Amino acid sequence: MVLAAAAAALSFGCGDGRVSSGGSIVASGPDAVLLRLAAGGGTARAHRVGSDSLLWSSRDRAPAVDRLLGFDDFLGLLMLREPSGHVSSVDLRLGTVSRLAEERIPTTLVSEGSSVFSIDSSGRVLRLTPSGTMSWTMPGTSGVVPTPDGSLLVLTTAEGRSHIRRVVPPETRTLDSATIATVRLTSRTLAGDRLWAVTDAGLVSLRTRDLSQAFDLRIRDSIVAFALTPSGDRVFVATDEDELRIVDRYAEAERGSVDLPGRVSDLRMDPDGHYLLAKAADADSVYVISIGTARVVGTLGSAWRADLPLVTPDGRVLVVAGDDAVLLDAESSRERMRYRGGAADRWLLIRWNGFRPRAAGLDRPVEFEEYAQDSAAADSALTAMIYGRYGDLTGVGRASATDAPAAAPSNAEGRGTWTVSFATMMTEERAAAMADSIVVEGRRARVVPGNRDGVAVWRVLLGPFDSRQAAERAGMASRMSYWVFEGAP
Questions:
Q1: Quick one: average pLDDT of 80-88?
Q2: Domain that holds residue 476
């Protein structure tokens, strides 16, 4: 999901677009959308960046919000943490709100897409997803860093050294490891190819694919914060001095600095790489630094929170101003838009096309066969889909439209027992090979034998699930063609 965000940032930063027949420029990248949820709970809302009109609102009432954790653009899920410690999701496609688990999690947590990770004082690592929960214990765990490729970097500290392990959940076996000086701060590049860590001696960069060390830069002054450009080519380092140091990743050395009006205590990078925000150490002020010119171009008054201030793609900064959230020009500080009562909300900038109106031709329902609970009929419609995309993997060939039985009545509530079907094979070996390749949140697909007109067939199924919505999410997470039917496998 982070790679999708990187592509979105690139498309906005480069003015990606296409010329329509009328000669106007039509944006072809994902839409920039501001999500807002009331801290005390209520309707989740969305605004297109640059507009204060309501773009979308949730059907269900969202719970009270402590933090917005992140967004999964593939599933359309917004992840949040409640003040009670529970983690919930808001489905931006359906407008529904769901709690991931009844377990309360510690405040130390990070997220990657719809996966949320936390650690407790005993070293237990907890992973929450819409499909399930898992945990394991690594004594001494002090931090976790998820990466876009699905792996997880786990940091443990002992005897003045930090040990970094790479695992791929739900497996907990260590694939790679590295040992460096005690780590105080970490951050990874947007693409996930490098892990940066601040130690007592300076700045260390590791390659995430194998945790080999890229370079180790000694910095004598104490580092209080650092931020990476979206491309990962430069690192801005804040120390206890009135300047930022600029580290060039490719030169593997310091390359310049930024003079500051005063000391800073935190940094926040614009996802498009135009500006860097720096929190003044002794006041509710934010310094705006131009990445292109490496100088301070403005100072804004705002409280510094986990969600605000944030930079929008149109070169403005959303800040806290009294009871409101206000969009200001990054350099001139001119007010452009005011969201009344916005200071009491939690905000998140996402890139997503899911709110765009669908073409009328796409809204015609696709007709697939349904299975009754006691039926072993072949999934001919799905077989035809797989044949068209991958060729004849099954040996069945294209299914005839006349083979499909009459559709069974659907459950209006979406509750009951539901199963995800991927294919129907003529050989058990092919079915087993496909089933072994399908693992969703620790659940592996299985092969169920059946009979079609006296001929033995093997179906590749996943489930059961207690709702159609859960089955659909598992099917989407598999990233394979699938069909959902009501009933047990």
A1: 93
A2: 365-486
